[in-house]
What we know:
Number of strands: 8
Strand content: 5-15%
Distance between the termini: 16 Å
Oligomer: single chain
Radius of gyration: 17 Å
Mean pLDDT: 96
Low-confidence stretches: none
Structural class: alpha/beta
Amino acid sequence: MRKHIVAGNWKMNNGLIQTETLISDLKQQVKTSDAEVMIAPAFTNLWHAFQSTRQDDIEVVAQNMHFAENGAYTGEVSPGMLKSIGVKTVILGHSERRAYYNETDESLAKKVDTALEHNMRIIFCFGEELADRKAGNEEAVVERQIKNALFHLGADAFKNIVLAYEPVWAIGTGETASPEQAQDMHAFIRKTLESTYGHTVADDMTILYGGSVKPGNAKEIFGKPDVDGGLIGGASLNAEDFYAIVNAF
């Protein structure tokens, strides 16, 4: 049975003091849903965030990692380093990583393999740009991104993967895919999984929606049958707003 998850991607925001304050504010919120709660602070604050939430129902996850175990990769972080400080889940393939740092399906496949070798859980992101949507190519783009990066894996590997559909045109723009558009794509993603891996893998897969989710629209989006939660950007930087989304189920 698939899980509800709400993950807050803090991106390049919050120094140590702001991180401490936001975590303190998060701890004061009351969770009424069954959703797993995750936060992804900056690398510099992962250890402090992990230590600060060890007794709480909040998992600290990383925003990225390198595919190599170690070596001459200045400025990069390996999965072993993440696990050494208690981080067991990583976001891979976010649209900003693809756009600004030229991450490709091929390089992401290598990251996926390395993360799984370290028994890490992966939140794997993908989604179409506005030009793709306008041209009616959104399903082809999404199918290609999923298949190129993930379909070399065996069925068992998907137990450690969460998918996150993020239409690029709806990230940080104030635009949001309608609940119906989100449902249609999530259903297509599940159908794509089923065509190769069968009904059980597809039905058990948690698929998150990422794209300007707010307290005001979360309930309607999460109410769709194939939407299992959200990867939240800006709204995750406010504890009250974030938990309003968590409790939208």
